[in-house]
Amino acid sequence: MKKFLSLIAVATLLMSCGSSDKRGQLVGAPGKKWYPEKPYGMTIVPGGSFIMGKADEDIAGLQNAPTKTVTVNSFYMDETEITNSEYRQFVNWVRDSTIRLRLAIMADDQGATPGDGGIGEYAFQDQEDDENITPYEQYMLDNYSGMGDDPYASRKINKERDLIWETSEYPDEFYTEVMDSMYLSVEESYNGQRTWDVDKFKFQYTWMDIGKAAKNKGAKRSDYIVREEVKVYPDTTVWIRDFNYSYNEPMHNDYFWHAAYDDYPVVGVTWKQARAFCEWRTLNHNTYRKEKGKHNVNKYRLPTEAEWEYAARGGLEAATFPWGGPYTKDDRGCFRANFKPLRGDYAADESLYTVEAKSYEPNDYDLYNMSGNVAEWVHSSYDPASYEYSSSINPNVTDDTNMKKVVRGGSWKDIAYFLQVSTRDYEYADSARSYIGFRTVQDYLGRQGDLSATPN
Question: Which residue range or ranges hold the Sulfatase-modifying factor enzyme-like domain (predicted)?
Answer without folding.
Answer: 41-441
